[in-house]
Amino acid sequence: MIPFSILDLSPIVQGGDAAQALRNTIDLAQHAERWGYHRYWLAEHHNIPSVASAATSVVICAVAAQTSTMRVGAGGIMLPNHSPLVIAEQFGTLESLFAGRIDLALGRAPGSDQVTARALRRKVGDADTFPQDVLELITYFQAGSGQQVRAIPGAGLKVPVWILGSSLYGAQLAAELGLPYAFASHFAPALMMDAIAVYRNRFRPSQFLARPQLMLGVNVVIGETDQEASELFTSHQQAFVNLRRGTPGPLPPPDPRFLERLQPHERWEIDQTLSVSAVGSLGSVHAALEEFIGRTHADELILVAQVYDHAARLRSYELAATLSRRLHENVAQA
Q1: β-strand 4-8 against 300-304: which pairing, if any?
Q2: Whole-prediction pTM
Q3: Is the peptide bond before 223 cis (omega within 30 degrees of 0)?
C-alpha cells in the first residue's frame, strides 16, 4: 500500500486563534490515526500569522500524547535555527516518551523572513554548515563511547532522520548520507523531477537505509463536487498571494471570486507554485493522484490541506484516506 501521511501547519484562521488551531491539530491527528494515516508531521515556521506550530517539538509532544500508533514528527525542524545538541535532546526526549513513533525531518531554510531569522539569533551563513550540523546531530543519537558531549536523552535511541528539500541541494545531501528524503513539491514543484533523479541516481546505501525512500508533498482538497473543492482551496491560494505581497495574515475563508481579481502575473505564480495539487471530487482527486504516483513513483505521499473550515478539512482528509489502498491496487495492476 502507498502510505499517506499528513503535513499540518496548525492553521490559524480569521476569527480564530492559536489555541483553537492547536485544538484542531490534535483533533485532526486523532481522526487521522483512525483513518490509517502513516505519519503526522508538523512544520517549523516563525512570525507567520496563519501558523501555530512554531514551537514544533512542543506540538509534536501534544499530538503524540493524544494518539497511540501513528508516527508523529517534524516536517521539519529548520536546523540552522538551533543547536544540533538541543534538537537531539528534544527529539531524544520525545522518543523516550513515545518509543518507536517519532520522526525528525531537517531543513536548512529559516522558516521565516530575515528580520525574524535575526530574532532567532540565526547568523548569516548558518545554512552553510547544514551538512556538518546534520552529521553532528546524527552523532548525538549514536551510543559511541568516548563522546565528551552526549545527548541525554538521545544517545542510543533510534530516531529516523529525514532530509527536507525544495531544490537539488537536499537531494544531493540525502543521497550522499543514505537518508530518506522528503521533497516540498506542494509549494516548490519546479525542480521536483530533477531532485527525484538526483536522489535516486546518487543514493548510497547506509546504516540507516538500504534503498532510496522518497516522500513527496501534495496539496489535496476533496469536496463533494469539483466546484466545492475549488472554493475550499481558495483559502490556501489567498494565503499564498498574501504572503507574496508581504501582507500575511490568518487563513482567510473561501472566496469563490478570488482568482478573478488577481493580476495575470499573480495567477501565473499560483498556477506554477501550487501545480502539485489534487483538488476536486473524490473521483477527480483519485485520477490526479494516480497520474502523479505513476509519474514520480513516490514511496509515500504527505498531504497538505489548508482549509478554513475544520469540519470540511476533516472531511477532505477522511475521503483522501480511502484512496491510498485503491491507488496501490491500481498501480500494482498496471
Answers
A1: parallel
A2: 0.94
A3: no
Contact 42, 62 (CB under 8 A): no
The amino acid sitting at 205 is: P
Higher pLDDT, 124 or 1: 1
DSSP string, 86-112: HHHHHHHHHHHHSTT-EEEEEE-S-SS
Pairwise CA distance, residues 121 & 63, whole Å: 28
Copy the grid coordinates of residue 286: 483519485
Q: Which amino acid is at 201?
A: N
- Contact at 8 Å (CB) between 184 and 165? yes
**Where are the alpha helices (H) located in the chain, listed in sequence order?**
18-35, 56-65, 84-97, 114-119, 130-141, 168-177, 192-202, 226-244, 264-273, 282-296, 310-321, 323-333
Secondary structure (3-state) at 6:
strand
Question: Angle at the Cα of 19 (from 13 to 23), degrees rounded to 5?
Answer: 90
Contacts of 258 (CB under 8 A, 6+ apart): 234, 237, 238
Residue 112 has pLDDT above 70, yes or no: no
DSSP three-state, residue 122: coil
Give tens-digit pLDDT for 172-206.
999 999 999 999 999 999 999 999 999 999 999 99
User: Whole-angstrom Cα distance, residue 236 to residue 248?
Assistant: 12
Q: Answer yes or no: are the C-beta atoms of 104 and 162 closer than 8 Å.
A: yes
Partnered with residue 165 across adjacent β-strands are: 183
State the average pLDDT for the chain: 93
Q: Which residues contact 129 (CB under 8 A, 6 or more apart)?
A: 80
- What are the structural domains of the chain? 1-159 (3.20.20.30), 216-334 (no CATH)
